[in-house]
Amino acid sequence: MKTRRDFIKISALGTAGIAVAASSFSYAKGSGLFAKDATQSLDDSDLQRTPTYCEVCFWKCAGWTYTNSTNEIVKILGNDEDPHCNGRLCPRGTGGVGMYHDKDRLKTPLIRVKKEDGKSTFREASWDEAFDFVAANMKKVGAEYGPESIALFNHGSSGHHMGHLLQAFGSSNIVAPSYAQCRGPREVGFGATFGAEIGSPEPTDIRDTKCMVLIGSHIGENMHNGQVQEMSMAIDNGATIITVDPRFSTAASKSKFWLPIKPATDLALLLAWIHVIINEELYDKKYVERYTYGFDLLKKHVENMTPEWAYGITTIKPDVIRKTAREMGNASPSVIVHPGRHATWYGDDTQRSRAIAILNALLGSWGRRGGFYFKEALHVPHYPTPAYPKPKWSWKEAMNGKYPMAGLSVSNSLIDASIPSDDNKYQIHAWIVSGTNLPLTMPDKSTLKKAMDALDFMVVVDTMPMEITGYADVVLPECTYLERFDDLRVEPHRVPSIAVRMPAAKPKYDSMPSWWIAKKIADKLDLGHYFPWNDYSEVVEWQLKELGTSLEEMKTLGVKKFDRESGALYMREGEDFEFSTNTGKVELYSTELAKHGFDPMPIYTAHPEPPSGFYRLIYGRAPMHTFSRTANNPNLTDLMHENAVWINPKVAKLWSIKKDQYVWLKNQDEQVSTFPVKVRVTERIRWDSVYMVHGFGHSNKNLKTAFGHGASDSEMITNVMIDPIMGGTGMRGNFITFITEDPGKEAKL
Ligand code: SF4
After folding, report:
1. pLDDT digits (tens, 9 = 90+) for 375-391
2. What residue ranges define each of the domains in the chain, with the CATH number in brackets?
3. What contacts 24+ positions apart, CB below 8 Å, involve 387-396?
């Protein structure tokens, strides 16, 4: 196997750029989590505003980018009309201006070349050279193995432009790690139950709920903007919050009940709750009778799954299980057992999500006020372009019969398909990677490395020199979301809406928007007819006209709401309703899972325990950062520049580890962290677990602010438990111990 893809430290970076003025960070510390206008000192009359929607996370809050008289971006504020944010951005969204000002941004195209000593390096290239290089390699791989052998890994708005290019070329192998590494299991679990996926933003009617259960979902630390605001409203209105988490999270601190569950046992608790709700007749009888399928089978299934049975597994006392079940029953149907977002934990995650969906079904919360509303999105017509050629095979064939209920392509499958082997009939030979830092996103780095080593070619499109750029053959610098047009935001909500993103300033350095990058590569591939526009504003303008508005109007509005057309937000009393399942009912017993040979109702199975002297690794989010992509943002690192490992005081004492001491982590497979991490000794974590915020521990020195700050949780995830139903990568089966002497890994970088 080839191993030519040695990691390049991008030494050529920085020479092509202009000096950057100091950033004008507009988030005022101590002003609360959400900034309404944290820059009162700036005189707005001097500023010009341009509509945008935030790209710092997937919530896509709409806002205004403010520029000064020299056309520098100075602040970003929320759009009052936007249902995603209600005029308030979170700290990360306000800090988005730091992405624009970041001095470490990619500044010019780079092409991998071999030095005399045989090692690789990057040389700066013109855009035209870079496009020739990309097109020549795409043509070569396409001619040799077929266009299907090129895959796109993407995250965020840019992915659509690169996806259009790839489909025009003849491949539909397009994948986002946000499915198999994050929310996929809940989509399949809810889909199998209600015939409808959750999607984003989640249609949780939090503002009107009377009771919300958070099971491993820490709203408030993950800044899902509208949800956090609604949760605060619900608490003010007296809603009961029940938080299940081995850690005393921010959400737990706002809860009436905190259930510090033994990790990996959540499914047992959910089944015991189902048992109590059925046996104490706390369920919504009319709803269950009219709309569900398989109630008697479910009742029989959970017969022995009593709170006493669950106590021995979860460490949650039977009376607490009963009490919390009664809280849910009393609030029915205005109750939400939250589906969570990052659901890939233990490899049986679709079944855990199914149990959550079943609980909601019993409580009658789907389609009910204070439960889940029926969301609606606007249909935006496609700008006319030619039909794509039909690929001979796709990610489905590459999965070779595995994961039959995967609704989207599975990133780990396409990574496996990139490793040559005798039984790999559908091999991927080249990758385009757009806006996703796979070395920090994907678990199991050795498989990822094997796949990258075997590739014929890799293009990376990004704004920052993330670790993935070091493995690329060509790096294309994309401008930030504040400097470009993108597609209209049309995510569903209570009422349909659109939001527009327009450039507030010219792209800095030699960076360019991805719509332009995709179009220019297409020109070199003789696929220019798929991109019949000179500027992407023409596409947006055409779509807006079709919707009865215009770019001119949207420039002043930013967000426009439309009337609902699909019917009411909630079910009407006694309404006939057909669900999109095989039976047309809410399936407590899943006929689809049964058809594929899986358990039609969830079953608890025990997961491996930590070996002696090891603790289960749990990871999560902080309000100031999104994944690894914000770790270098100068404005956000002002708020948090490293993560810490949370250790229970009993464990710290046992190891003689002190507060604020730096330790290295070692996992069950002898994987040692490259960097040390600060210790936080706290009662807020169970003794059998450690916790850290995801996204730190960057090892690329070109990320000058982020390099070496904190430890990477994903580096410690070498054991991955794959969900056989949809291919999700369970990542919470890794165990950590501590090293107090420097193992010397960093010195080798
Ligand atoms: Fe941006 Fe925060 Fe909204 Fe995410 S929640 S889109 S980071 S403002």
Report:
1. 999 999 999 999 999 99
2. 1-37 (no CATH), 45-101 (2.20.25.90), 110-179+408-561 (3.40.50.740), 182-374+572-595 (3.40.228.10), 615-739 (2.40.40.20)
3. 388/167, 388/168, 388/170, 388/172, 389/147, 389/168, 389/170, 391/147, 391/148, 391/170, 391/171, 391/172, 391/173, 392/146, 392/148, 393/148, 393/426, 394/148, 394/172, 394/173, 395/151, 395/172, 395/173, 395/175
